[in-house]
């Protein structure tokens, strides 16, 4: 999703060198920070909540800002809709610079372009669910009948049908946050800011809400900026993640980039507890295919390949380079001994082939059921790589697979090299190698 | 050292002389307006027969609290009639009503201002401290100077004395509104006026009502003191009984004040909680109407999360 539509006009929100300092003289703090002073050095003057944050959020993207409490993420999100004024730097929403504009213009931007979901829901307790959902529309100046009709469709969309006339206090936490989400969706802005929106919910409800958010995002195409301190949530929701620490953004990348290539020890330490199986994909762990022959190459070529690489299986490709199956050394050896020249009879098509974006958790079962390595193929069935069992285990356990010169080849050869060589020599005269 | 003296009192006197000299038109206007307001309210309370007023008060009691309070109101007010203090009590009530309405009308906007602006708050707070700690009798002196003897200085002194809790609790209530909810208002593009009207005031209402309750109670206590400057009513009775050491008159007038105080306190406190028999009745009607209108749609779809 991240690499689609990279057109320049599709930037929904842009933050450019944002600073936010609290204290008597915030501008002086920023000046010192820009001159290279650290956050600790200026602590006598005040607090630097956000330091030099720059990023671009693409239209239709879920951009997660992740950090522990005190890392400045809540301050950062509040600068994106002007709830906090920036001390330095600019914020652009939908092409409009919202820093330094009048209060009225700012209200206009908030009505039309950017809405927000809050950690503790922030519903109006004296208004019914439907009036809460319609709140943004009311501020936009929409008539009562029209806005209630629209709010009703949103209530159905977020799964609160039948609760329209209840007060928020009569709803459970998860349902209250659905109202909060509904209120933001009803306002029909392109950008949604979500400030720890699911952090106050029970784990099961949180997961349910996360899934629903992804569905809604896919259906409505909103740009979502999501703040969280929960890395698993960040990994689950984010197309891209910005990791914050002590007011600075330390890394921006896709969940996989953050996981496989952490920018520093802090990020690395942070990500070590992540459920890797749900984040890493086949493409990120697969090994290059070494043992590969074309279907027409014949058994002798296949056997020689296996001997050279000391492996017991080799992948077979069709003439158009698409994946045909796997052959095993025993079967090939028999074929060679029998003087056969065609591989087709022994190609096993029971090897598992998966798409590159498959997450590792889905590879565990096939890997348990068969000792054959898993093939990774693209939509056109072209072989991209291979995931032996060892690689899978290493990836799940976060162990580096390339410790030595020798790449992992699996499964290891079951027939000795000398036997293969002998067989090849014996049959060299009669066999015809294509 | 004995010779040294800072003549603060004389300075204040000079200030008052100056003000009475040049702003007399202003004080005349206030005098005229307050006297008119008092006479109108007093006329409305005194001219009908006592049982009409008792009936109305009892109905109000029934509406805001229920049967027990209804009975208590009837008995208490009849006791005032029985003690021959009815007219004095109604005069006092009129003074309290006029003074507290004006005090509330002034204190809520001031409270809002103090909540919205730190600068305003830092000016208003010490003034309130001053008003609350200055002995109540002292207010009577400038009131007498500016408005001469009668009900008006009593009302003015009462307003000044009773305003402080109204301002304080309004500020406290508005500042105490969940900042996230206020943020939500701004985040959806609501103007500050709309946030005040639709979020801050409704959510601060219980605290503001507690402030109003305090204003009324303080008004009542001050109105009695105001009897000293000729405000008449129960205050005058109490002053008379004090000068004559008349325990009969003193206890009867005092009891009448207590009955009025309890009545006013319970009524305003009930409004503060918002949980009155009347509001419950309205809510019940409303929910019956919606239930019968949409029984079908309400039952089936209950999201998973409810069960979890």
List the helices and strands and how they pair.
The complex is a heterodimer of chains A (434) and B (308).
Chain A: E1 11-23, H1 26-34, E2 46-58, E3 62-66, H2 73-80, E4 88-93, E5 96-97, H3 103-112, E6 114-117, H4 129-133, H5 135-140, H6 144-157, H7 173-186, E7 191-195, H8 203-220, E8 223-228, H9 231-237, E9 240-245, E10 248-253, H10 255-260, H11 265-271, H12 276-279, H13 282-285, E11 292-294, H14 299-309, E12 313-317, E13 323-328, H15 329-338, E14 353-354, H16 364-369, E15 374-377, E16 383-387, H17 389-396, H18 417-426
Parallel strand pairs in A: 3-8, 3-9, 6-7, 7-8, 11-12, 14-15
Antiparallel strand pairs in A: 1-2, 1-4, 4-5, 9-10, 12-13, 15-16
Helix pairs in contact in A: 6-7, 14-15, 14-18
Chain B: H1 8-22, H2 24-46, H3 50-64, H4 67-82, H5 86-116, H6 118-133, H7 136-147, H8 151-175, H9 179-187, H10 192-225, H11 233-244, H12 247-273, H13 277-293, H14 295-298, H15 304-307
In a few lines, what is going on in this structure?
The complex is a heterodimer of chains A (434) and B (308). Chain A is an alpha/beta fold.
């Amino acid at each position: 999703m991240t690499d689609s539509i990279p057109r320049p006009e599709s930037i929904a929100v842009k933050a450019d060198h944002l600073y936010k300092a609290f204290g008597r003289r915030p501008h002086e703090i920023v000046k010192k920070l820009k001159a290279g002073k650290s956050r600790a050095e200026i602590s006598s003057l005040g607090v630097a909540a956000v330091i030099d944050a720059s990023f671009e959020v693409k239209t239709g993207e879920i951009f997660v800002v992740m950090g522990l409490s005190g890392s400045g993420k809540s301050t950062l999100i509040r600068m994106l809709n002007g709830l906090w004024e920036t001390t330095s730097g600019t914020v652009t929403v939908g092409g409009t610079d919202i820093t330094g504009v009048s209060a009225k213009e700012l209200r206009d931007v908030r009505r039309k372009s950017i809405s927000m979901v809050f950690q503790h829901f922030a519903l109006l307790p004296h208004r019914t669910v439907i009036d809460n959902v319609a709140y943004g529309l009311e501020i936009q100046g929409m008539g009562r009948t029209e806005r209630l009709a629209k709010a009703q469709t949103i209530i159905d969309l977020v799964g609160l049908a039948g609760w329209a006339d209840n007060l928020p206090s009569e709803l459970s936490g998860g349902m209250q946050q659905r109202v909060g989400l509904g209120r933001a969706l009803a306002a029909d802005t392109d950008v949604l800011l979500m400030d720890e929106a699911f952090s106050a919910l029970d784990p099961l409800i949180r997961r349910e809400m996360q899934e629903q958010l992804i569905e809604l995002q896919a259906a409505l195409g909103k740009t979502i900026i999501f703040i969280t301190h929960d890395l698993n949530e960040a990994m689950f929701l984010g197309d891209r993640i910005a990791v914050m620490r002590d007011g600075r953004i330390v890394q921006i990348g896709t969940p996989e980039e953050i996981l496989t290539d952490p920018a520093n020890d802090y990020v690395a330490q942070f990500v070590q507890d992540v459920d890797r199986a749900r984040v890493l994909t086949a493409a990120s762990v697969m090994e290059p295919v070494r043992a590969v022959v074309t279907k027409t190459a014949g058994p002798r070529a296949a056997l020689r390949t296996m001997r050279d690489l000391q492996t017991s299986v080799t992948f077979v490709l069709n003439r158009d380079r698409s994946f045909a199956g796997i052959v095993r050394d025993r079967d090939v050896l028999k074929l060679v001994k029998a003087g056969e020249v065609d591989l087709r009879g022994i190609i096993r098509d029971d090897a598992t082939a998966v798409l590159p974006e498959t997450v590792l958790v889905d590879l565990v079962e096939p890997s348990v059921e068969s000792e054959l390595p898993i093939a990774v193929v693209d939509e056109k069935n072209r072989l991209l790589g291979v995931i032996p069992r060892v690689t899978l285990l290493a990836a799940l356990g976060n162990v580096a697979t390339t410790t030595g010169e020798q790449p992992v080849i699996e499964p290891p050869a079951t027939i000795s090299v000398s036997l293969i060589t002998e067989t090849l020599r014996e049959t060299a005269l009669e066999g015809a190698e294509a | 050292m004995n010779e040294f003296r800072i003549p603060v009192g004389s300075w204040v006197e000079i200030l008052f002389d100056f003000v009475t000299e040049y702003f007399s038109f202003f004080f005349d206007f206030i005098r005229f307006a307050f006297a008119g307001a008092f006479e109108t309210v007093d006329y409305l309370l005194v001219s009908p027969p006592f049982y009409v007023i008792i009936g109305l008060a009892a109905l109000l009691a029934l509406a805001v609290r229920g049967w027990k309070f209804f009975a208590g109101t009837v008995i208490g007010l009849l006791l005032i009639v029985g003690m021959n203090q009815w007219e004095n009590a109604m005069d006092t009530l009129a003074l309290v009503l006029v003074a507290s309405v004006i005090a509330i009308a002034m204190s809520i906007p001031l409270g809002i201002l103090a909540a919205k602006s730190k600068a305003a708050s830092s000016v208003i707070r010490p003034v309130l401290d001053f008003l609350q700690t200055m002995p109540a009798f002292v207010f009577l002196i400038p009131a007498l100077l500016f408005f001469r003897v009668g009900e008006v200085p009593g009302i003015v002194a009462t307003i000044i004395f009773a305003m402080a809790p109204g301002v304080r609790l309004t500020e406290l209530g508005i500042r105490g509104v969940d900042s996230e909810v206020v943020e939500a208002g701004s985040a959806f593009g609501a103007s500050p006026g709309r946030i005040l009207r639709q979020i801050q005031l409704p959510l601060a209402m219980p605290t503001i009502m507690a402030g109003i309750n305090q204003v009324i109670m303080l008004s009542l206590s001050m109105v009695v003191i105001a009897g000293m400057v000729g405000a008449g009513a129960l205050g005058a009775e109490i002053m008379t009984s004090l000068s004559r050491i008349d325990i009969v008159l003193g206890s009867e007038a005092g009891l009448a004040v207590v009955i009025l105080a309890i009545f006013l306190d319970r009524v305003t406190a009930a409004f503060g909680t918002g949980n009155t028999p009347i509001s419950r009745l309205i809510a019940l009607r409303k929910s019956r109407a919606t239930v019968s209108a949409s029984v079908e749609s309400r039952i089936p779809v209950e999201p998973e999360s409810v069960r979890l």
